[in-house]
Amino acid sequence: MRVPYLHKADIEAAANELLMSYHYKFGMEEAPPVPVEEILESLLGLALEFDDLDALLNKKGVLGATWVNERRVVINEMLDPTEDPSVEGRYRFTLAHELGHWQLHRHLSFDEDGQTILCRSKSKKDPMEWQADCFAGYLLMPKKDVIRSWEEVFGTHDPYDASEELYNMQSRFDEAGEASEEGLVVDLARDLAEVFQVSGLAMQIRLVDMGLLKLR
Amino acid sequence: MFIRSMREEKKKRDPAYSLRKFAEAAGISATFMSKVENGEFDPPAPDKIKKMAELLEVNSDELLAMAGKVDPDLSGIIRDQPRAMADFLRTARDLNLGRKEIEALTDKLRAERGLDPSE
């Protein structure tokens, strides 16, 4: 299947539009964290479920799946934040990723039997997965909210050069002889991640992308 | 299951009825709630179902019955007056009293004793 090329700006616009329609319909606070569950369930009216996706799809490492025709999103029960609060960030990102598939890909034609399932696994990085990840970042960390939080915390627009901090972290890790699977996250990204309820790494990637954080 | 369709009806107008908020308000995990809605798990304990009925603004005895349960306070009522109360209920059943008749009877008793009419 051919996945049309989408520019980052198009994906960001699609994420902002979805968020705006939510606030237009339901009002509520326009401060982070972004209400991803409410967008999925109330605005789009999709069914949300938790289940053992490994068993259901007979496949390992699937974090979320969307059955387009059934208007149903299933999240791996390993990511249920009401059972394990430490997975909150990864849960929200997975949900936002599935929303990305819904907004960007549900109209694409899939296999002929009409059973359209879109999955998110850890490893796969085809264009569709990349686009959905990109969408998730924009939806969970909208530009204006990130800038506002940055100003509130640091009192300035200026970017922060974290290359030295990162270098020190890196050498500490090297001494310990263990490489971090998730990558190294600077304190500042970790702090802002709390506000947006995303993982430290997702926050850091967003800040670098916006030019607010320099890592090298 | 019926709880899902009731909740989905509500959630489209009110984001407070999201799976997670609803599960948390009922005092269970989102996964548990999801599997109850799927029919994969048996319905939870009566107190959780009563809480759900309250959240969904439906009659709790009706919701309990749909889940194949009765309110524990009812078995207490029967235990307190085992012979008379059981006889009372069986008589109503043997006479094939319909909903309207039972309600009329209840309202009559309530009126006689100066209680507000039942819902």
From TrEMBL, chain A:
Name recorded for this polypeptide: IrrE N-terminal-like domain-containing protein
Residues annotated as domain IrrE N-terminal-like: 88-168
Pfam families associated with the record: Peptidase_M78 (PF06114)
InterPro entries membership: IrrE_HExxH (IPR010359), Rad_response_metalloprotease (IPR052345)
